[in-house]
Amino acid sequence: MKTIKTALADVKQLCNSITELNANVDQLKKSWPAVTEFLHEAQGALDRWQFKDQARIDKIQAIVDRLSKRN
Fold first, then answer.
1. How far is 21 from 59, CA to CA, in rounded Å?
2. What is the pLDDT of residue 23?
3. How far apart are CA 42 and CA 33, in angstroms?
4. Are 57 and 50 contacting, i.e. CB atoms less than 8 angstroms apart?
5. What predicted TM-score, i.e. pTM, was given to this entire model?
6. With helix as H, strand as E and coil as C, how does 7-29 read?
7. How far is residue 49's CA from residue 56's CA, in Å, rounded to a whole number?
8. How is residue 71 annotated by DSSP?
9. How many angstroms separate the first and last alpha carbons of the chain?
10. Tens of pLDDT, residue by residue, the chain (71 residues)
11. What is the pLDDT of residue 70?
């Protein structure tokens, strides 16, 4: 009898976990467009920054390369 009660409790807990998982998946699906938009904006900002400062980045990389060759 105790095993049946334990099994029923486990099944109930599993059902509750599945319900919570489904709710979380739905929330994730709803937030996905905002996350995608943020990623595109962040990538655009990074691309603009890199284009603007590419000359400095190249100079820094040249210095790093020279220092690496010395060691």
1. 50
2. 97
3. 14
4. yes
5. 0.52
6. HHHHHHHHHHHHHHHHHHHHHHH
7. 11
8. -
9. 74
10. 779 889 999 999 999 999 999 999 999 999 999 999 999 999 999 999 888 888 998 999 999 999 999 86
11. 84
Token pair, residue 13, equals 């807990």
Find, among 30, 18, 51, the residue nearest to 10 by Cα: 18
Residue 27 tokens, joined: 């929330």
The residue count for the chain: 71
Residue keyed to tokens 């995608």: 36
Cα–Cα distances (Å) from 16 to 3, 19, 20, 23, 26, in that order, read 20, 5, 6, 11, 15
The residue to which tokens 């904006």 are assigned: 41
Q: Quote the tokens at residue 68.
A: 């690496």
